[in-house]
Amino acid sequence: MTPPDDDISPGELLPLGRRFGIVLVLGFLTALGPLTIDMYLPSLPTITTDLHAGAAAVQLTLTGTLVGLAFGQLLVGPLADAVGRRRPLLGGIAVHVLASVLCVVAPNLAVLGSLRVLQGLGAAAATVVAMAMVRDLFDGLAAARLFSRLMLVVGVAPILAPTVGGLVLNWTSWRGVFVVLTAVGVAIMAASALVLPETLPVAHRRNGGVLGTVRDYGRLFTDRVYVGLILVAGLAMAALFAYVSGASFVFQDSFGMSEQQFALIFAGGAVGLIGATQFNVRLLRRWTPQQIMGGALLAGLASGLVLLVLAATGTGGLVGILIPLWVVLTMVGLAMPNAPALALSRHGEAAGTAAALLGAVQFGVGALAAPLVGVLGVGAVAMAVVVFGGMLAATLVCFLVVRPHRLPVERLEPALAVAH
After folding, report:
1. What confidence tens digit (pLDDT) does each residue in 51-103 have?
2. What is the rounded (10 degree) CA torsion for 368, 369, 372, 376?
3. In whole angstroms, what is the distance from residue 370 CA to residue 59 CA?
4. How far apart are CA 399 and CA 362, in angstroms?
5. Alpha-carbon distance 90 to 21, whole Å?
């Protein structure tokens, strides 16, 4: 079925240059979390040696970042609905910058892990406020298209971050990676302060306090479709983070790649992810977001099964791992823009809180995937088991809980106007 043309949303009425600047900065905001996660991935084996820790323990520093991202969004989302978008955003990025500075001088793994949680808390503000601003400015298919465009900017992070991390390791230790993250945080904070308007008018702010926040979250949990959609997004993210957390050990330790070779392999997967998000924009001209999401999950599940079989049998060597893995990442790239757009379109009256719960589930489930890979081992089979498990669970939730074929195709209410 061809979806109907969506109404023009307020963001599309902005001058082209201003709209481009806002979208670009929103993309950098949503990239802050992936940059924080991915830039130090080539350093994981080095940190293991330098801080005299096991691989599973070092992977917990990744888990700490994801926990911070998840918990931080639950705090920032209601705050952004109550006081506006800009103040929580700038305060959160400042926390990220401070944590990055302290990571540079972390004396042991325990301190580093704690600071990574703090980094995640700071990055959470950037993630949830960016999504809420998208919902403030755009709606319906316009929002789905913008999520796809933002994924293009976000996708630059996993391509460049491990490469930059590998280059930094050529000149200094893993601590230099956090120097670079400090500089990135400062630059993003400056761009946000200069370019982004306040998109939530005072009249639309929600000041119900703690009880109001609890009521908002309770209302969200009563929406079966919304809960199903955020679980789909979270479980697809789990498959992605199983790859993120296990890839450096699989390709560097098992296949003997250098840090730079690993960065190139990681970039190849990111290219598939990015290409899919952009192809999604073209697919939306013919199919609905729910149709694309369902089809992508089924294809990703099949590819995940192939990955698991080839990894378990050792068939195909490196190529046998890479090809189905890249297909899975491509399918995740098709599913990810549509699940958030569908979820947030159902609760525009509390966009910050809805985006916070969405992001918390995404990164919370991802946080569970990272140590699970470490517990199962550091080889290709362990990574493949969790990747396949994430795609299987996402597909089951999609078709048993969300039931995308039953969702109505209709025009959605216009988004909120921009507050200057």
Report:
1. 877 777 887 888 888 888 888 888 888 888 888 889 999 999 999 999 999 99
2. 170
3. 7
4. 19
5. 17
**How many whole angstroms separate alpha carbon 342 and alpha carbon 362?**
15
Rounded distance between C-alpha atoms, residue 268 and residue 161, angstroms: 13
Following CA atoms 150, 156, 249, 237 in sequence, which dihedral angle do they give, to the nearest 10 degrees?
Answer: 0
Q: What is the DSSP letter of 419?
A: P
CA atoms within 13 A of residue 70's CA, in its CB half-sphere: 19
CA-to-CA separations, 260 to 163, 183, 268, 309, in angstroms, rounded: 7, 22, 13, 28
Contacts 24+ apart (CB under 8 A), 319-324: 321/250, 321/380, 321/384, 322/265, 322/268
User: Which residues touch 197 (CB under 8 Å, ≥6 apart)?
Assistant: 22, 418, 419, 420
**Cβ contacts of 340 within 8 Å, gap of 6 or more:** 131, 147, 229, 233, 355, 358
Q: Give the torsion through C-alpha atoms of 228, 234, 235, 237, to 10 deg.
A: 150
The Cα 417–Cα 329 span in angstroms is: 35
Domains and CATH numbers, the chain: 10-406 (1.20.1250.20)
Classify 14 in phi/psi space as left (phi over 0), alpha (psi -120 to 50) or beta: beta
Q: For residue 187, count other CB atoms closer than 10 A to its CB.
A: 11
Which pair of structure tokens corresponds to residue 282?
């073209």
> Could you tell me if 329 and 269 are in contact, meaning their C-beta atoms sit under 8 angstroms apart?
yes
C-alpha neighbours within 13 Å on the C-beta side of residue 305: 8
Q: Measured between alpha carbons, how far is 177 from 41 in angstroms, rounded to an integer?
A: 10
Find which of 120-124, 208-212, 273-277 is predicted with most confidence, using mean pLDDT.
120-124
pLDDT score of 117 more than 90: yes
Q: pTM, whole model, 2 decimals?
A: 0.69
